[in-house]
Amino acid sequence: MSNEISGLNARMVLDSRGNPTVEVDCYVDGLLMGRAAVPSGASTGAYEALEMRDGDASKYLGKGVTQAVENVTQRIEEALVGLPVDEQKIIDEVMIELDGTPNKANLGANAMLGASLACLHAGAAVHELPLWKYIGGVSGGLMPVPMLNILNGGAHAASNVDVQEFMVMPHGFDTFEEGLRAGVETYHSLKKELKADGLLGGVGDEGGFAPNLPANEEGLKYMVRAIEGAGYSVEEMGIALDVAATEFYRDDKYHMDGKAISSEELASIYSGWLDDYPILSIEDGFAEDDWRGWSNFTKAEGSRVQIVGDDLFVTQAERLAQGIELGAANAMLVKVNQVGTVTETLESMDLASSNGFNNVISHRSGETEDVTIADLAVGTRAGQIKTGAPARSDRVAKYNQLLRIAEDVKEYRSPF
User: Exposed (0-12), middle (13-18) or buried (19+): which is 100, by Cβ within 10 Å?
Assistant: First the structure.
């Protein structure tokens, strides 16, 4: 059997929000060897690569992906057929050149990423390797500490809570399986606490509970109650926040808890929370263009908390290099669809780690049953993954894949 790409196929499938997304099949010697589906974000950074949508309001409310699908079957396929399926860098460079724009506006990041990921899966299959091992090579795998988003707010929920994600991080455990179990038990404990207070309503996009609360700090109090209610200590189970501050930043002010406050005032609130709660990680604490706010906070608090750039860096090396120079964070969130190819994702991760930044692999709020990011987290030895609550199969699929991988990969250690 040769290892050359013989064809690509693409189709529209639905994501976890019931919106269209792209799925791509990669064929080698006429055999289906790889398949991948592309996620989609709700709280998106302005600097992300372009997700191509049809804009035809009469179909799928304008969110159709017919054009992106056709770009795979009519343009990308022609460019990739005949290339070695295990030369990921060449595959991605050919697509980047074919697109010819800085933000994937010609082919669409969703079309390009679908093809890139499908080829990655096919490459692993041709070599008869699990995907994590194909990605990681000789460096082996490291099981990530999970961040479980158990209380949703912001753009992910119909509630009055500004902070988008309150996550538990089971970092004080010896194995991935034990950590996941503790996180799952804490999720059920939170449900019990909210029910006792008459606050149990629906769940957000990522499966976490979405209560209306009198203030954002109440979310932190519930997290501690849930941790302790599950029988764990705040030394072994920490809290991670995704504030998604860009979502409530306007007119040079942050609008939180019904007040308009400055960047400095917001930083002061975070510092108070760090004093009072077991917070290990704060993602997107400031808006995507508030470089000064980011740098000042990292200088003040970077020694005691992980400060993660998501909208700030959008997994892109150019933005990350700027953040490194300014000392604007100490970790990067990694979302493959923000940049559009596997190679560019890995290059950004290398830039982060070589400059002492942590990498946190992440899902999107619009997910599919595709589990590539679980293997990516293990293979790259990122050490952390956020992929939602342990509820809804689009999230649970990733945790289940990690449980499978954990049968072969025992190394697990906390970055904290």
Answer: exposed
Per-residue pLDDT tens, the chain, 416 aa: give them.
689 999 999 999 999 999 999 999 999 999 999 999 999 987 677 789 999 999 999 999 999 999 999 999 999 999 999 999 999 999 999 999 999 999 999 999 999 999 999 999 999 999 999 999 999 988 889 999 999 999 998 766 667 889 999 999 999 999 999 999 999 999 999 999 999 999 988 888 899 999 989 899 999 999 999 999 999 999 999 999 999 999 999 999 999 999 999 999 999 999 999 999 999 999 999 999 999 999 999 999 999 999 999 999 999 999 999 999 999 999 999 999 999 999 999 999 999 999 999 999 999 989 999 999 999 999 999 999 999 999 999 999 999 999 999 999 999 999 98
Residue found under tokens 């689009």: 394
Report d(CA 133, CA 121) in Å as an integer: 11
Q: Which residues are catalytic?
A: 206, 335
The Cα–Cα gap between 273 and 296 comes to 17
Question: Do residues 112 and 76 make contact, with C-beta atoms less than 8 angstroms apart?
Answer: yes
How far apart are alpha carbons 39 and 63 in whole angstroms? Answer: 13
Burial 240-274 (b: 16+ CB within 10 A, else e): bbbbbbbbbbeeeebebbeeeeebeebbebbeebe
Cα–Cα distance for residue pair 288/384, rounded to 1 Å: 22
Distance CA 146, CA 313 (A): 21
Structure tokens at 289: 């263009």
Give the separation between CA 371 and CA 401, rounded to whole angstroms: 7
DSSP string for 293-319:
HHHHHHHHHTTTSEEEESTTTTT-HHH
Please list the residues that pair with 283 across neighbouring strands: 242, 308
